[in-house]
Amino acid sequence: SSAASDVYKRQALLRAADLSRRAADARGSGDALTELARVHWLEGGEGGYAEALRLLEEALEVRRGLGSARAIAEALGLIANIRIQRGDFEGARAPLEEASALAREAFDLAGEARALMALGAIAYFGGDYDRALEVWKDGLRAAEIAGERELVGAFLNNLGETRLSRGELDHAAAALLEAREITTETGDLRTLADVLKNLSALYAQRGDLMRAQAIADEALALATAMNARPSLGSALRARAEVRSLRAIAEASPELARAAEADFAQAIAIFTDLGDNAELARTQVSLGNHQRLAAGV
After folding, report:
1. Mean pLDDT in the chain?
2. Is the pLDDT of residue 17 over 50?
């Protein structure tokens, strides 16, 4: 099963980190700790983002001792991303600035693009959509020049979501449909799940609620298959938002209750992960649902 595979993966990485420490292999230890942290971050393993952050800080200390600019920048960038998810936007800025400087020093264009990805996220979560678009367009260009297709797909997804937040539905559709094509091609399932979540919201805004529902269900199935709790929380919120709109359109108390149950499950996941950024968005959506569906 996927869950058993994830447990095996974490155990293998823990074993690799331990063996590297015993063999005084600092590089191997730093790499294993970083990959283990990445698993915790992307899949929402036991301890959530707090455990991922602890592992990354340990990896960063090891990598600083080695002095590899690219490796240090990678760890700093991941630390910044997790701090953003935890809602600590100011705490993310210093590691991002250092990661960006190190990437430039190492002529690592992909590393610079990753730093721009996180800087754009700070602007997006802060509601500065103009700044987010500007930063993510720069990041997209850097990722295209570097030939990093997975990053290109992720930037297009973020740009599409930002256009969606601004009500620019045609621009959003163009970016998200291209993002779906690229993430399907590269096999970046985590980003693909997020693209599907955003496409669900796009069709909901266009009033095509049944198509929005089908795509939200697809995102939920993918997140479940990956056993990735962060993706699962976002997919549950997407389905809840569509169910909420359908409950109002169809005057259905059953759909209203189903939407509330999805919101509650998403909130429980984000609370457990320590994902304060997504938790806040979900609580706002739940509040909107409760207000609009009160008369259903």
Report:
1. 90
2. no
